[in-house]
Amino acid sequence: MIDSIASLDRAEILARLADVVRPDQIDTDEQHLKEASVDRFKKYQSVHGIYDAPTPVAIVDAESTEDVSAVLAFADEHLVNIVPRTGRTGTEGGLETSVVDTIVLDCSRMDAILEIDEEDMQVTVQAGVPLQRLEDELRARGLTTGHSPQSKPLAQYGGLVATRSIGQFSTLYGAIEDMVVGLEAVFPGGAVRRIKAVPRRSAGPDIRHVVIGNEGALCVITEVTVKVFKYMPENNEFHGALVDDMRTGVAIIREVVVNGFRPSVVRLYSPEDANQHFAHFSEGKCVVVFVAEGPAGIVRATSDEIRRVLAQHEHQPVDPGLIEQWFENLNWGQDKIDAEKATMLERQHLGYTTEVSADWSAVADLYDAVMRRIREEYPHAGDLTMLGGHSSHSYQTGTNMYFVYDYAIDCSPEEEIEKYHIPLNAIIVEEALRHGGSMVHHHGVGKYRTPWVEEEHGSAFAIMQGLKAQFDPKGIMNKGTIFPAPGAIQPAAANPETTFRA
Predict the structure, then answer these.
(1) Can you give the pLDDT at residue 337?
(2) End-to-end Cα separation, the chain, in angstroms
(3) 0.85 exceeded by the pTM?
(4) Per-position DSSP letters for 194-235, written without gaps between them
(5) Listed residue (293, 351, 352) closest to 327, CA to CA
(6) Which phi and psi angles does 404 have, rounded to 5°?
């Protein structure tokens, strides 16, 4: 917890807010405020009604860029901490309120699709537009954003851009930073800045990236323009294979990608993780999955290459129909979140993920190192009901690794994070950095990966600090997110223990 530095007390902040926005835009419901103090990093505590972060003063529901500007001008003048949010699907503590008397600024009501430009192949939306709604409208026109994160039924555009989101079809369409061509953002003090949408330019550093991935620590995203693509699902072709080990799987997906082919889905599952998704056919082996998508000629060529590469390796083919069935059920909506909550309460059991990335030459060693350390060193390994991983986003130079760990909880809800999630997450991050990779691939730094942010960036961390000093000199934007701040997270998270006592 960080003490407020605001020049107004809690009651005064609330009273003055009524002069900034309409009273019906200010939510002070006690339960809503508690739920707004955390994100899904603390999902086990919150399902038990435990909220240990400072309760916000209010949730302000912005309805326009002008509202956002007015709130940020007020907050900057009076040194009030701001936590921006839209779809609320964050998993790394980025939406957690670390500062006493914080205002949570919600842009979900800013939900207009402003323009669909079918000639220039781009669409402009406000920050609160749900990805699912936009995608449904585009597909009716034969178009797609190509962006499909697991949170697609719930995610909104402000949060997607703020966290450098990635979708499940990224190997073909790219990540959110590849899709954004222009945007609007509001900075502390209320300044509105627009970056125009153009195909490309060579006019100095690409200033889109000051905003993309800022996680509300520099500014609030209010409008986004992204590319769109032709949607041709009738051409999709599905491929699956069983292989004996992760290294063989890595070799297969690497060869397809570095040879210049871009299936929309390129995945490799460890046996343990495969059993969660493909138990009806995985047979205790690793599962390789490809989906070829796009124009018919490109799909045919991509499928031919996938078959050629698979033929060079020992494998068992999988019925494409089984892969297609899996493909149709990739996303998590509110129904699955509610089911997860029920499981947490009934069985005292849950799962988390930690996603990192590494070069092709390092990713198999990284996977093996994490598995060995957790199984051999982590003192509560006996509580793990599943430990595995998968690669789901590949590039010319490497791939990601999504570590997945489920556990039966043998402690109180208050102790769960420190006993399980924090040390497991820390081992994975440590090994990713030790193997020359990145500590986070697409969920964002939030607050709980800040202990490693300086090591992540090395000497370039000074550039990050310069951005914070320039754009948020008073430090009112989402204190403790991306940029470490003493007290923002509990000591066990700020200094995670990974050298375990015998």
Answers:
(1) 81
(2) 32
(3) yes
(4) EE---S---SSS-THHHHTT-TTSS-EEEEEEEE-EE--GGG
(5) 293
(6) -125, 130
